[in-house]
From TrEMBL:
Xref: Pfam families: TPR_8 (PF13181)
Domain of life: Eukaryota
Annotated TM spans: none
Repeat (TPR) residue spans along the chain: 23-56
Protein name per the record: Uncharacterized protein
Gene3D superfamilies per the UniProt record, alphabetical: Tetratricopeptide repeat domain
């Protein structure tokens, strides 16, 4: 979703100037900062909202999740206990509590909270059932019998949306890997397109070297020559060959001058990114022989700071034939969002087209991790949570929790407006 976070924050600031103790606006402010991966700053706003309205369960829930991301687990449990005191039937609090205890290696308390969550579960809520199955998988990873029972339960669920289908396949894939039924896990991977949980699955694969070795062998990765692409490590070869993702750090193996732009980033899939720093960055990618003809060019990048109003990011396709330039007004909408995928239309590009990316000197402090192509449209801006910091949270956990406090609906806005990051201009005017 391509939210204009900075504009929304500016508008929320105007509301806070009217009433700086409006707990609902403070809570929503924290939501936006969380989405921008400014976790500690978001906690400060959730805490301000809590001080004003200590019975706002939604606010406590969001602060607990944020504490979970920054690994302050005792504070997570403290907030969840507050929620349960206010609402003893709050099932999501018990889910997060079980997950937190599991993360702390406290299996007894994890199972106690799991049982309570199962008791409170609404049988008609498919997404809640999926959460339950994911948690059940975590608590029974060492029991092949229990894992097979979970597979049976998954097959009995009648999903009604693509998202639900993908979530269930994600859990099945992880279970097959635990059971060492690698051919079944691979089949799921091969049939699953790029989606919200993709990065989490990629991290998971890397953490299971036996499965990784199997994939590398059975996909016959080494039968391909990657020299002209600068790809040398096995993971990058797999991602290019099977997922059609090209890490721009591979370019340092083709042009040693680019090594000065390379830096480590633990939140990235490959662990390496290229950073514009204070130099002009001009990346000329090799001709990427992807299998299909695609309509969209997607770049994963992190615009940290704009240094000049003369800044630009230029995507050039097929030499000088055509280019797409993001100028200051466009780049300013990306600043501070953290890692995002930015999509550009390339409907007339053939499968063997060549790309280049150019960033003007001393204009933008930003990082680039990879590029990929797509034949289906997605939002122009897709935000990425830092998967490496998520621990055992379900990779698309945000879909299981409302992003909007119920009390917002009557106070200012309709739910539809809020879910789409409403335009507050109408309210302020």
């Amino acid at each position: 979703m391509g939210e204009d976070y900075l504009s929304t924050l500016n508008l929320l600031d105007k509301l806070l100037n009217i009433n700086k103790e409006d707990s609902l606006v403070l809570c929503y402010y924290g939501e936006i900062l969380y989405n921008m991966t400014q976790y500690r700053k978001s906690i400060s706003y959730f805490t301000k909202a809590y001080t004003i309205d200590p019975e706002n369960i939604h606010n406590l829930n969001r602060r607990a999740i944020t504490y979970c991301v920054i690994k302050e687990y005792d504070k997570v449990l403290s907030d969840l206990d507050k929620i349960i005191q206010l609402d003893p039937l709050n099932s999501s609090a018990y889910y997060l509590k079980s997950l937190t205890y599991y993360t702390k290696n406290d299996s007894n308390n994890a199972k106690i909270s799991f049982k309570k969550y199962a008791e409170l579960l609404n049988s008609d809520n498919i997404l809640a059932k999926i959460q339950l199955l994911h948690l059940e998988y975590l608590l029974n990873k060492n029991s092949s019998k229990d894992l097979n029972d979970i597979l049976t339960k998954i097959d009995q669920i009648h999903y009604s949306s693509i998202n639900e289908k993908v979530f269930l396949r994600f859990i099945k894939c992880k279970i097959y890997i635990e059971l060492k039924e690698y051919s079944k896990a691979r089949l799921i991977l091969d049939c699953t397109p790029y989606y919200d949980g993709f990065e989490s699955m990629s991290y998971f694969i890397q953490d299971h070297p036996d499965f990784w070795s199997y994939l590398y062998k059975v996909c016959e990765i080494n039968k391909n020559d990657f020299t002209k692409f600068g790809i040398v490590d096995e993971f990058s070869k797999y991602m290019y060959r099977k997922r059609e993702v090209y890490f721009v750090s591979n370019l340092t193996n083709l042009n040693s001058e680019l090594c000065q732009f390379q830096e480590s980033d633990i939140s990235s899939l490959s662990g390496l990114v290229l950073s514009s720093k204070n130099e002009k960055l001009h990346l000329v990618l090799p001709i990427l022989n992807f299998i299909y003809t695609y309509d969209y060019f997607i770049c994963k990048m992190n615009v940290k700071k704009i240094l000049s109003k003369d800044c630009f990011i230029k995507f050039t396709l097929n030499g000088n034939y055509r280019d797409y330039m993001l100028k200051h007004e466009d780049v300013s909408k990306l600043e501070g969002l953290g890692w995002i995928e930015y999509q550009t239309s390339i409907r007339d590009l053939h499968y063997d087209g060549q790309f280049s990316i150019e960033i003007e000197i001393n204009s933008i402090e930003m990082q680039i991790e990879y590029i990929r192509l797509s034949y289906s449209s997605q939002p122009i801006i897709t935000h990425f949570t830092n998967i490496s910091s998520m621990g055992y949270l379900f990779p698309v956990y945000h879909k299981f929790f409302s992003n909007v406090p119920e009390t917002f609906k009557d106070k200012y806005f309709s739910r539809k407006e809020m879910e789409n990051l409403l335009d507050l201009k109408d309210i302020l005017n």
